[in-house]
Amino acid sequence: MSPPESRRVFKVTTRTAWEGALKRGALALSSDDARDGFTHLSAKHQLAETLAKHFNAQPDLLLIELDAAVLGAALRWERSRGGDFFPHLYTPLPASAARAVHALQLDGNGTHILPEIIRQC
């Protein structure tokens, strides 16, 4: 998928981090985000691999659904894993930008199950 085709982008975060974002107004950077200097986001087609690689079997995660257009020029599509373009946000992620928040469930093997509404979009 080329960058202009993606209208929705997603952030995987912990419930605790999101609760903090709602209080502060913006999501705090994860350790990976702070190390790299931007907030790591994913397009829909990248979610399964992102979850498996970085969040395998981790419980109590949320999937924050965002409208790429709302994030503006601070959202950049940059080549990353496997040469694919990934969305990177170079400004704090405002909690108000969330279009929806989805709880992620684990199956019996510790694999995250994407909500049906995400699989259909």
Explain the overall architecture.
It is a single chain. The strands form three sheets. The protein has a four-stranded antiparallel sheet. It has a three-stranded antiparallel sheet with strand order 3-6-5. Strands 2-7 form a two-stranded antiparallel ribbon. With 121 residues, it is of the alpha+beta class. It is globular and about 40 Å long. The chain has a single domain, classed as Protein of unknown function DUF952 (ADP-ribosylation fold). The protein has five helices and nine strands. It starts with 7 loop residues before the first strand and ends with a helix. The model has no long low-confidence stretch (mean pLDDT 91).
Question: In summary, what is this structure?
Answer:
The chain is built from 5 helices and 9 strands, in the order βαβαβαβαβββββα.
Taken from the alpha-carbon principal axes, the silhouette is: globular
Might you state the CATH topology name? Answer: ADP-ribosylation fold
- Uncertain runs: none
CATH structural architecture: Alpha-Beta Barrel
Main β sheet profile? 4 strands, antiparallel
Give the C-alpha Rg: 13 Å
Furnish the topology, listing elements before pairings.
Blueprint lengths: L7 E7 H10 L1 E2 L3 H6 L2 E2 L6 H8 L6 E7 H4 L3 E5 L5 E5 L3 E2 L3 E9 L5 E2 L2 H5 L1
Antiparallel strand pairs: 1-4, 2-7, 3-6, 4-8, 5-6, 8-9
Which features would summarize this protein structure in a list?
121 residues, four-stranded antiparallel beta sheet, ADP-ribosylation fold, alpha+beta, single chain
